[in-house]
Amino acid sequence: MTSPADPGLQAERTSLAWRRTALSVAVGSLVGLRVLPGELGAYGYAVCLLGLGWSIDLAVVARRRHRDADLVLRRLGHRGPEGAVVARVALATAVTAVAALVGVLVIAGH
Fold first, then answer.
1. Cα three-residue angle 58-62-59, rounded to 5 degrees
2. Which terminus of the chain has a lower count of CB atoms within 10 Å, N or C?
3. What angle do CA 92, 94, 96 make, to 5 degrees?
4. Nearest-5° angle of CA 54, CA 55, CA 59?
5. Dihedral through CA 6, CA 11, CA 12, CA 13, nearest 10?
6. Which helix (H) or strand (E) holds 41?
7. pLDDT tens sequence across 56-105
8. Other C-beta atoms within 10 Å of 29: how many?
9. What is d(CA 57, CA 91) in angstroms, rounded to the nearest whole number?
């Protein structure tokens, strides 16, 4: 018979995954800061700054969600994801996708 998993570990793993995602976006943006401005000019700076802002937002949200999940587990209640958080992540993803598409089209035009 297996013992039940510690409920706190799932929240910890999820928080670490979001932090890794934020770090990956930040590193990608910093690498882009070295490459994109030479190719795209001011547009390259804007895309990189957008990515850095998004990575900060991801890190802040990950920390807040972990804290909230910990509180929920301690109270043995349940609370779904906040609509504002889901909307911000969806908006940032859509804006990044459009920026990447425009960047590809600009580079392909050269």
1. 40
2. N
3. 65
4. 115
5. 100
6. none
7. 999 998 888 888 877 777 776 455 556 777 788 889 889 988 988 888 88
8. 20
9. 12
